[in-house]
């Protein structure tokens, strides 16, 4: 076996328990493998498949991963037909060729999606061949408590029974005790030999940062400081993926979007480009498992927090699979949790309860001041003995600790007094004396412990209860919906308390709005601002346009903070696109440069992030509709908008620098004199403010009429 390992894979020795796993499988025994990402799971079924008689059926949920693994196996073999996959991406002719290779005995591994496995024609074919064993990869998908539950995985065992018996090996990188039990029960391998590796990835650095309006800047700055290194950024939605990928590309970063809504060939091309290092950064949805088998991913970022710690652990596990550097940075705000909870609405109540509990675990991880490694390993039932791992933000920047011995006693007594039947939030409510509906319904306001910790902040109570679990005084099994139980050690602690030091959990504010661009800053340099106003007036006179057409006030205010002196820097100013920079920017850059030199201004070296125009699907649809002269009322209706909302979108389009022509609609709906009168007003006005226009334009025009003509004016004069 050692010789085969060297011959086929080029390794001199097995890693961890790989050899024992392979021997168990080759002896015909069912096997369960829990091994972290990067631990070498794939080899546990690839090598025995090559050595054993027949074809191994590998069931995998990810088409991208199948292709990647098949390509990798072909590279270690002299025969291209050694591995194949059957899925929806193949033509009928390609599938027939795959089957011919299997019948000829050339194919040792056949990768199939669970959906393909259940097709009648595939079941009939597989009945006719010699199967060495079944490998169920990403086996956590079988459990509702897993982070990526897929109902079709529940059908695997019945189909195996129909095709014919053979040993089963189930493999997963993340699973709590509940998930492990679920997997073995559903696959009918309750007595399987179990191999569990440590979840500790010592080469990974963990960090959680608050998500703010400057998060885009932080992301870009980090990537540029680690230029040329491969990274993955996970986002909550497809829209966010595409927007962030566009922003990265606008800032000269080799990046690409990757999500389930894209064409298969585009996803495959993107994955290949990432593996071949033609691009450095993949921006992907959390919901879509990427399955990218790339060993030298140097950073994994979570722009939005994932739905569970299992998901987070698996996604961060894609960093540093070669044992080298791997940095895992998550951006966190409560708003992400609220969004994820909202997504659960409409699902069965039990599923919502599971989802919310998994989210609470993720929130506790993000907000805790405890060693992140210790928390992660504890979640997976593993003890980390060190107090300081030296490789996470909490350990490198520890907070001051306070003595919480008495608080822990109060908490333990409150849990026992409420019959060990409630979750953490409820216990905190009892301790703080919150007379909410649930507490009153259980009559717990009558307990001696009620309000015993009213003067203690929620964040400190959370820290006490989280640390008590890590220290073994409390247990909280996720599958029991987070209900807290006092352990034997906890009961001993009540009788004989000892020192218990905790650091208060981190407070995260919610001042973040989705991908918002920074609003106009206050004027930072009054003297420069006055000079810019003067120059704007000169430029407006020269071009015979109102001053706000040249640059809006918010753009001038930003210039007094960032001091742009090149055309490239000018394009980073809010409201200044390429065309506007070319038309007006040169004179402003020259003035700012001269001002900085004369006044010894040290310009900020902080990164200037180039933004991109919002090319959302709706805006593209609106522009496309206008190009085809479709009635604006129809455009609004087809995009699910009211007419006022459509005008909001049109204003956003023209103010961002895109030219549109709505003359066909104006000429149909409005009198020519009316259009001219409003247009002339804006030509001479010092402001484009709507209320001011309503007061100063003769005639009783409705707001939407004035807005429509203003859109025409801005489009023609400013863009």
Task: Explain the overall architecture.
The protein is of the alpha/beta class and 719 residues long. It is built from 34 helices and 17 strands. Helix 12 (264-275) links the parallel strand 10 (255-258) and strand 11. The radius of gyration is 31 Å and the shape is globular.
- CATH class category of the largest domain: Alpha Beta
Give the radius of gyration.
Answer: 31 Å
* Rounded average pLDDT: 86
Count the beta strands: 17
| SS strand fraction | 5-15%
Enumerate how many helices there are, as a single number. 34
Largest sheet: 7 strands, parallel
Q: Do you know the CATH topology of the largest domain?
A: Rossmann fold
Q: Can you identify the CATH superfamily of the largest domain?
A: P-loop containing nucleotide triphosphate hydrolases
Helix fraction?
40-55%
Q: What structural class do the secondary elements suggest?
A: alpha/beta
Instruction: Give the end-to-end Cα distance, rounded to a whole number of Å.
Output: 70 Å
Question: Largest beta sheet: what is the strand line-up?
Answer: 3-4-2-5-6-1-7
Provide the domain count: 5
Second CATH tier, the architecture of the largest domain: 3-Layer(aba) Sandwich
Low-confidence stretches: 513-521
Specify the overall morphology: globular
Entry summary:
The protein has 719 residues and is an alpha/beta fold.
Defining traits:
alpha/beta; Rossmann fold; Arc Repressor Mutant, subunit A; 5 domains; seven-stranded parallel beta sheet; six-stranded parallel beta sheet; 17 strands; globular
């Amino acid at each position: 076996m050692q010789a085969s390992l060297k011959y086929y894979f080029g390794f001199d020795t097995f890693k961890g328990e790989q050899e024992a796993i392979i021997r168990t499988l080759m002896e015909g025994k069912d096997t369960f493998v829990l091994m972290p990402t990067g631990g070498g799971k794939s080899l546990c079924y690839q090598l025995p498949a090559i050595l054993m008689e027949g074809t191994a059926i590998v069931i995998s949920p990810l088409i991208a991963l199948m292709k990647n693994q098949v390509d990798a196996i072909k590279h270690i073999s002299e025969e291209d037909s050694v591995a194949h996959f059957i899925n929806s991406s193949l033509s009928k002719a390609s599938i027939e060729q795959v089957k011919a290779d299997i019948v000829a005995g050339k194919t040792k591994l056949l990768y199939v999606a669970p959906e393909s496995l259940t097709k009648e024609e595939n079941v009939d074919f597989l009945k006719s061949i010699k199967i060495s064993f079944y490998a169920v990869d990403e086996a956590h998908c079988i459990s509702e408590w897993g982070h990526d539950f897929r109902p079709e995985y529940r059908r695997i065992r019945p189909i195996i029974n129909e095709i014919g018996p053979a040993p089963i090996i189930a493999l997963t990188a993340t699973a709590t005790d509940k998930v492990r039990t679920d997997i073995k029960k559903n696959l009918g391998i309750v007595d399987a030999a179990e191999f569990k590796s440590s979840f500790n990835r010592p080469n990974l650095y963990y960090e959680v940062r608050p998500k703010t309006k400057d998060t885009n800047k932080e992301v870009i700055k980090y990537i540029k400081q680690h230029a040329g290194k491969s990274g993955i950024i996970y986002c909550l939605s497809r829209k966010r993926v595409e927007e962030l990928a566009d922003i990265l590309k606008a800032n000269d970063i080799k990046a690409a979007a990757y999500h389930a809504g894209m064409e298969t060939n585009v996803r495959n091309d993107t994955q290949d480009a990432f593996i071949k290092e033609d691009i450095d950064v993949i921006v992907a949805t959390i919901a879509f498992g990427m399955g990218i088998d790339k060993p030298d991913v140097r950073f994994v970022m979570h722009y939005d927090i994932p739905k569970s710690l299992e998901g987070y652990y698996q996604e961060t596990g894609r960093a540093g699979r070669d044992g080298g550097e791997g940095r895992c940075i998550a951006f966190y705000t409560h708003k992400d949790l609220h969004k994820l909870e909202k997504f659960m609405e409409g699902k069965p109540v039990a599923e919502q309860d599971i989802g919310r509990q998994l989210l609470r675990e993720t929130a506790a991880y993000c907000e805790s001041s405890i060693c992140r490694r210790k928390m992660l390993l504890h979640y997976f039932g593993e003890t980390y003995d060190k107090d300081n791992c030296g490789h996470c933000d909490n350990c490198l920047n520890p907070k001051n600790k306070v003595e919480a011995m008495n608080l822990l006693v109060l908490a333990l007594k409150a849990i026992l007094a409420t019959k060990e039947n409630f979750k953490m939030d409820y216990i905190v409510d009892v301790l703080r004396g919150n007379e909410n509906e649930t507490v009153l319904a259980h009559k717990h306001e009558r307990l001696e412990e009620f309000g015993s910790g009213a003067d203690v902040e929620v964040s400190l109570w959370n820290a006490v209860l989280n640390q008590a679990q890590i220290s073994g005084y409390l247990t909280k099994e996720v599958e029991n919906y987070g209900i807290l139980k006092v352990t034997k050690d906890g009961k001993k602690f009540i009788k004989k308390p000892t020192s218990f030091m905790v650091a208060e959990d981190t407070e995260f504010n919610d001042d973040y709005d989705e991908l918002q661009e920074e609003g106009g800053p206050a004027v930072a340099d009054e003297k420069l601002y006055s000079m810019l106003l003067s120059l704007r007036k000169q430029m407006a006179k020269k071009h015979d346009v109102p001053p706000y057409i040249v640059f809006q006030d918010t753009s001038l205010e930003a210039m007094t903070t960032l001091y742009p002196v090149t055309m490239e820097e000018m394009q980073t100013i809010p409201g200044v696109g390429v065309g506007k920079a070319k038309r007006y920017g040169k004179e402003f850059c020259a003035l700012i440069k001269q001002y900085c030199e004369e006044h010894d201004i040290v310009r900020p070296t902080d990164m200037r992030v180039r933004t991109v125009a919002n090319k959302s699907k709706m805006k593209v649809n609106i522009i496309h509709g206008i190009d085809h002269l479709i009635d604006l009322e129809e455009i609004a209706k087809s995009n699910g908008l009211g007419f006022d909302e459509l005008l909001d979108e049109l204003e956003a389009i023209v103010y961002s620098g895109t030219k549109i022509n709505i003359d066909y609609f104006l000429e149909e709906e409005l009198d020519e004199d009316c259009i001219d009168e409003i247009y002339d007003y804006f030509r001479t006005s010092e402001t484009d403010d709507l209320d001011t226009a309503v007061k100063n334009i003769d005639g009783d025009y409705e707001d939407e009429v004035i807005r429509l003509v203003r859109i025409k004016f801005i489009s023609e004069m400013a863009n």
